[in-house]
Each structure stands twice: as C-alpha cells, then as structure tokens.
Amino acid sequence: MEHGTTILFGLLGVRVARVEEDGLGGRVVHVETVDASADGCPSCGTVSRSVKEYVTMRPRDVPYGETPIAVLWRKRRWRCVEPLCPRGSFTEAIGEIPPGRRTTGRLRRAIGAAVGDACRSVAEAASAHGVSWPTAHAAFVEHADALLAEPEPTTVLGIDETRRGKPRWVRDSEAEPWRRVDPYDTGFVDLARRSGPARTTRGPQQRHGHGPAGGTGPRVLRGDQVRGDRPGRGLGQSRPRHEGRRDTAAA
Ligand SMILES: [Zn+2]
Predict the structure, then answer these.
(1) What is the Å distance from ligand 1's center to 12 Cα?
(2) Which tens digits make up the pLDDT trace of 68-96?
(3) What is the pTM of this model?
(4) Separation of 58 CA from ligand 1 center, angstroms?
(5) Measured in angstroms, how far is the CA atom of residue 49 from the centroid of ligand 1?
C-alpha cells in the first residue's frame, strides 16, 4: 500500500497495510504498528526483538466518509528479554491507543468535544460515534479534566445561598416536636473575580448556615456585606428570595 493511504488515514503510530471492502458496503482498513517505542517493555523499558505472537484488535475510530469503516490493527506480542523483569510479555501500544483502550485518541477527543464544547448529550454523542454511553462519558470526563485547571486562590471569599425547594415541617418521631426545615444550598464563591465564581463548593444545608469562621484564609463576606445586596438582611434573619442570584461586586 502506498504511503499516501497512510497519510490519508492519518492515525499516528500505524501505517495502512491495505484497504478492502467488507462486502456489506463498508470498508476495512488493515494497519500495522510503526511507532518506534512500541517494542519497549512497559515495565523495564528493554527493547525486544523476540516476537511471541501476533494479535488483532479492532479499535473504534472516527467516522470516515459516509460508509462504515472498520480498523483492524495487527500487532505483535513481544517477549521481554530482560531476565530480571517480572513481565514475561507485552503487546504493542501506541499513543493513540494506549494499553487497555479500545478506542482511538482522536475518537475520544471528538466525543469529548461534542459533549463538552458543542453541548451535545452524552447519549447522542455515543450513538453518533458508535460507542456505549459509559465510553462516551469517559471521553467527556477526559476532555474536561484536560481543560479544567485549578483556579488561583481568591482574596475575597463570598457565601452564596440559594433556596432549594419550599420550607416544610418535619419531625423525627411522634414524640418529637415539629420543626421547620428551610433548605438552602450554600456555596462559596470567588468575589475577587468580576465574571462569576472560579470555584464554587456547594453543600446542601438546612436552615441557616454560616461559612468558615475565623482562620487566616481569604477575607470572607456574607451576602449582606456585599455592595448591591439588600441592607439589614443578615444570615440569621428571614431573607428575601434569593434564587439563583449571586452577589457580583467585590467590596
Ligand atoms: Zn520487561
């Protein structure tokens, strides 16, 4: 197979050996490993020249044209020739298809971008790319983890409370008095930034809660201490409905 087909296929670490039709309207692409590091033992790093056997796997790949395409990767299983190495043999792996993976990296990136950037649902992206829901979700998590960096520490920490549901009366047993439960979600928000929180740590809370007291961390402001909120409405008092609104002005 001429080199142009490998360039056209474009999966790093393999070359196209041949392409054939499957008789059902699809195509089968047979590929072989060309990654120079694929014959190094993952345990000890020793480069092997002793082939134990050949195995064929069928990794899922991105769609390629309008008819289905299947990738068959024929790869070697090597013997590790290092006497002290606990691993007797190992199978070739490439960067696009690490050990244990059955999808190509470019397919996982495409699914991750479809969910994380294009806001497509996990189920729809899974169906469109021919993978299961857990595989698509794992690709999205992998995509998000690569983008979400740890935010810088804040200098002004705010507390944001949002009513969650309606107040209700509950009691643990008939012998106990009724007590009112007024559920709020309390979150910590970064008020040093002008555009939304860098990180919000939420936790369900009943009635009136307070943030961290004292300490030497960032300055902590309550909602009523932030410019723009209503005066005279402390956390210990009844408050106006505050659903979904966040204090945006740093003091
Ligand atoms: Zn080894």
Answers:
(1) 24
(2) 899 999 999 999 989 999 998 999 999 99
(3) 0.61
(4) 26
(5) 12
